[in-house]
């Protein structure tokens, strides 16, 4: 047994166990996590602190930055709403119905997890460009998607979809159908059952999936920059503005935008955890 | 998971027309948003014929990018496997205070924008950074060089293996290991012959996802790489450069390699899920594990509260 484990036992930091390796594995985990994640992240905090309060906020609240943040959060919100609706529909169809190609479709839902974002980005840009397969017919109708905020939403729908499907799907699978039968027996219409029985049971998972898709969309970069057109104040997302500031060697501005984004994302993460804690107490699942 | 509906057609089903409409909408949505982009990659890649495709992927800069991507994945994936196994062992087999916080911290890289994951390393190792000037004096290059790319990749792929193994090992408990140890096996022997066979499919699943992300990462690597052709360009960055030069056929040809990687990943993942779903252990399927990380961030130490109910 490594000395650290003996020490750990003496300090009673953990419940007794006959298994070896606690000190070694926990020590390695903490060291690795510190080197790869904490030190770099605290570097961001340290750099923000050295900017000074006023300087930091003047950089963070510069009009172009605020607009980029607004675009990032706005488009991510819309995409997450679209995904909440269609992701639930997809999960429902995959769980409840049997049709040819269902398993293939089920596997395909994870494509956005597996496909590198840059590949998705150029594919979407080519499809929705004014001369693309989808862009052309839309252009005939007078609609433009590529190089507008709508294009950003399209890219974020792509990357966010699996989050909603994969959180709603298991809950839908575990849903006891006898409750639905009971509702039907008691005279409830199918729509009423859906509204009063099924949706409340799905709500926490749906909210979690929505929040995850939203959080992913806020930080997304690779799939967005090709289709967005990146016009300042119109279709320029916050992560891209960080890259632009770094290329201008304006580290201070990049730091300020990064810190604000990080604070907002962590706020979101906290909210997700609160929702899950609440739903676990209320429904017994997350 | 894929069992047929437990009940025959009953008042709780939808009318055939509604059903067809719902399936149709889902198919149309997935076709439009998922399959069409994938198909577009391959069609654009072969627009100029197989000769141009081969030329684009065997061009020296493309080959250099391919080599770099393979190198980065070959370093980052094993390191994160060691981390994932160590973290899962400590967290799943022992009780200690602060465990829930540790689990949340391991998931942290997933809630950070890839660009910020790159930015933090620029701040650390850049000219105006904390370590930058000192490293420069020593002649060590991290930023705009391979070490920076490896570090950024390590950051973004850190949670994958740990996230698969923690719920799986919590679910399995420590009784198998305790039995082996009581029969006189050494700790290392127990891990190799008892724990490893129990977790192998979950481990493979984590490796698969970790590798896909390591080879496909764009945002974080883009920030730290400096885009030096033939030197610090990974495959996704090479795709970007070609695309921005309006060399679309070559961009899509190189992108099609990454799309094949994604397809192989999906096929293996589906096969592994079937394996884990019908495994001898009565553990929940991988898909539930894959989503369980969401629900375990605030969890207490008790494994039973972590997993969704069976």
From TrEMBL, chain A:
<dbReference type="InterPro" id="IPR000515">
    <property type="entry name" value="MetI-like"/>
</dbReference>
<comment type="function">
    <text>Part of the ABC transporter complex CysAWTP (TC 3.A.1.6.1) involved in sulfate/thiosulfate import. Probably responsible for the translocation of the substrate across the membrane.</text>
</comment>
<feature type="transmembrane region" description="Helical">
    <location>
        <begin position="197"/>
        <end position="215"/>
    </location>
</feature>
<keyword id="KW-0472">Membrane</keyword>
<protein>
    <recommendedName>
        <fullName>Sulfate transport system permease protein CysT</fullName>
    </recommendedName>
</protein>
<dbReference type="GO" id="GO:0005886">
    <property type="term" value="C:plasma membrane"/>
</dbReference>
<dbReference type="Pfam" id="PF00528">
    <property type="entry name" value="BPD_transp_1"/>
</dbReference>
<feature type="transmembrane region" description="Helical">
    <location>
        <begin position="256"/>
        <end position="275"/>
    </location>
</feature>
<feature type="transmembrane region" description="Helical">
    <location>
        <begin position="21"/>
        <end position="49"/>
    </location>
</feature>
<dbReference type="GO" id="GO:0015419">
    <property type="term" value="F:ABC-type sulfate transporter activity"/>
</dbReference>
<dbReference type="InterPro" id="IPR005667">
    <property type="entry name" value="Sulph_transpt2"/>
</dbReference>
<feature type="transmembrane region" description="Helical">
    <location>
        <begin position="221"/>
        <end position="244"/>
    </location>
</feature>
<feature type="transmembrane region" description="Helical">
    <location>
        <begin position="69"/>
        <end position="95"/>
    </location>
</feature>
<feature type="domain" description="ABC transmembrane type-1">
    <location>
        <begin position="69"/>
        <end position="272"/>
    </location>
</feature>
<dbReference type="InterPro" id="IPR035906">
    <property type="entry name" value="MetI-like_sf"/>
</dbReference>
<keyword id="KW-0764">Sulfate transport</keyword>
<comment type="subunit">
    <text>The complex is composed of two ATP-binding proteins (CysA), two transmembrane proteins (CysT and CysW) and a solute-binding protein (CysP).</text>
</comment>
<dbReference type="InterPro" id="IPR011865">
    <property type="entry name" value="CysT_permease"/>
</dbReference>
<feature type="transmembrane region" description="Helical">
    <location>
        <begin position="107"/>
        <end position="129"/>
    </location>
</feature>
<keyword id="KW-0812">Transmembrane</keyword>
<keyword id="KW-0813">Transport</keyword>
<comment type="similarity">
    <text>Belongs to the binding-protein-dependent transport system permease family. CysTW subfamily.</text>
</comment>
TrEMBL record, chain B:
<keyword id="KW-0997">Cell inner membrane</keyword>
<protein>
    <recommendedName>
        <fullName>Sulfate transport system permease protein CysW</fullName>
    </recommendedName>
</protein>
<feature type="transmembrane region" description="Helical">
    <location>
        <begin position="142"/>
        <end position="162"/>
    </location>
</feature>
<feature type="transmembrane region" description="Helical">
    <location>
        <begin position="112"/>
        <end position="135"/>
    </location>
</feature>
<feature type="transmembrane region" description="Helical">
    <location>
        <begin position="64"/>
        <end position="92"/>
    </location>
</feature>
<keyword id="KW-0472">Membrane</keyword>
<comment type="function">
    <text>Part of the ABC transporter complex CysAWTP (TC 3.A.1.6.1) involved in sulfate/thiosulfate import. Probably responsible for the translocation of the substrate across the membrane.</text>
</comment>
<dbReference type="Pfam" id="PF00528">
    <property type="entry name" value="BPD_transp_1"/>
</dbReference>
<dbReference type="GO" id="GO:0005886">
    <property type="term" value="C:plasma membrane"/>
</dbReference>
<feature type="transmembrane region" description="Helical">
    <location>
        <begin position="20"/>
        <end position="43"/>
    </location>
</feature>
<dbReference type="InterPro" id="IPR011866">
    <property type="entry name" value="CysW_permease"/>
</dbReference>
<keyword id="KW-1133">Transmembrane helix</keyword>
<dbReference type="InterPro" id="IPR035906">
    <property type="entry name" value="MetI-like_sf"/>
</dbReference>
<dbReference type="InterPro" id="IPR005667">
    <property type="entry name" value="Sulph_transpt2"/>
</dbReference>
<keyword id="KW-0812">Transmembrane</keyword>
<keyword id="KW-0764">Sulfate transport</keyword>
<keyword id="KW-0813">Transport</keyword>
<feature type="transmembrane region" description="Helical">
    <location>
        <begin position="246"/>
        <end position="268"/>
    </location>
</feature>
<comment type="subunit">
    <text>The complex is composed of two ATP-binding proteins (CysA), two transmembrane proteins (CysT and CysW) and a solute-binding protein (CysP).</text>
</comment>
<dbReference type="GO" id="GO:0015419">
    <property type="term" value="F:ABC-type sulfate transporter activity"/>
</dbReference>
<keyword id="KW-1003">Cell membrane</keyword>
<feature type="domain" description="ABC transmembrane type-1">
    <location>
        <begin position="66"/>
        <end position="269"/>
    </location>
</feature>
């Amino acid at each position: 047994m490594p000395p650290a484990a003996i020490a750990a036992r003496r300090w009673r930091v953990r419940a007794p166990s006959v298994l070896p390796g606690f000190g070694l594995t926990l020590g390695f985990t903490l060291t690795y996590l510190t080197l790869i994640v904490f030190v770099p992240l605290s570097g961001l905090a340290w750099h923000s602190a050295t900017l000074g309060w006023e300087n930091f906020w003047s950089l963070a609240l510069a009009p172009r930055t605020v607009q980029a943040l607004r675009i990032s959060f706005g488009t991510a919100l819309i995409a997450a709403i679209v995904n909440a609706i269609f992701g639930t529909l997809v999960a429902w169809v995959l769980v409840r119905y049997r049709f040819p190609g269902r398993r293939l479709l089920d596997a395909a839902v994870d494509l956005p997890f597996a496909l590198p974002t840059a590949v998705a980005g150029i594919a979407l840009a080519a499809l929705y460009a004014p001369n693309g397969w989808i862009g052309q017919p839309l252009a005939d109708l007078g609609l433009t998607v590529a190089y507008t905020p709508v294009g950003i939403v399209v890219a974020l729908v792509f990357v966010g979809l699996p989050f909603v499907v994969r959180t709603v799907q298991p809950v839908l699978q575990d849903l006891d159908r006898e409750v639905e039968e009971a509702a039907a027996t008691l005279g409830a219409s199918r729509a009423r059952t859906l509204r009063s029985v099924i949706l409340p049971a799905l709500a926490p998972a749906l909210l979690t999936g929505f929040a995850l898709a939203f959080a992913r969309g806020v930080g997304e970069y690779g799939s967005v920059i090709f289709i967005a057109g990146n016009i300042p104040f119109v279709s320029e997302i916050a992560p891209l503005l960080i890259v632009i500031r770094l290329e201008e060697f304006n580290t201070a501005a990049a730091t300020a935008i990064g810190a604000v984004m990080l604070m907002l994302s962590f706020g979101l993460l906290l909210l997700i955890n609160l929702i899950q804690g609440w739903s676990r107490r209320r429904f017994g699942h997350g | 998971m894929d069992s047929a509906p437990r009940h025959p057609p009953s008042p709780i089903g939808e009318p055939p027309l509604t059903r067809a409409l719902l399936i149709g909408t889902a198919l149309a949505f997935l076709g439009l948003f998922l399959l069409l982009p994938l198909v577009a990659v391959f069609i654009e890649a072969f627009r100029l014929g197989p000769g141009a495709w081969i030329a684009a992927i065997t061009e020296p800069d493309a080959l250099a990018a391919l080599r770099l991507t393979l190198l980065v994945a070959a370093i980052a994936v094993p390191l994160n496997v060691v981390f994932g196994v160590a973290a899962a062992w400590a967290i799943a087999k022992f009780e200690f205070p602060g465990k829930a916080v540790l689990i949340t911290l391991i998931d942290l890289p997933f809630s950070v924008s890839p660009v910020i994951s790159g930015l933090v390393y620029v701040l650390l190792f850049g000219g105006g950074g904390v370590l930058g000037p000192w490293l420069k004096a020593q002649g060590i290059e991290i930023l705009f060089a391979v070490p920076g790319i490896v570090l950024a990749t390590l950051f973004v792929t850190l949670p994958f293996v740990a996230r698969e193994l923690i719920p799986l090992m919590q679910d399995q408990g420590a009784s198998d290991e305790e039995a082996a140890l009581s029969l006189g096996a050494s700790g290392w022997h127990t891990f190799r012959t008892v724990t490893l066979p129990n977790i192998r499919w979950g481990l493979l699943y984590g490796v698969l996802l970790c590798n896909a992300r390591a080879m496909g990462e764009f945002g974080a690597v883009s920030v730290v790489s400096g885009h030096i052709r033939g030197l610090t360009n990974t495959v996704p960055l090479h795709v970007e450069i070609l695309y921005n030069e309006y060399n679309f056929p070559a961009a899509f040809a190189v992108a099609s390699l990454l799309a094949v990687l994604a397809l192989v990943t999906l096929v293996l993942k589906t096969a592994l899920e079937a394996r884990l779903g019908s495994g001898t252990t009565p553990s929940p399927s991988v898909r539930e594990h894959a989503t369980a990380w969401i629900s375990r961030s605030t969890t207490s130490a008790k494994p039973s509260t972590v997993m969704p109910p069976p």
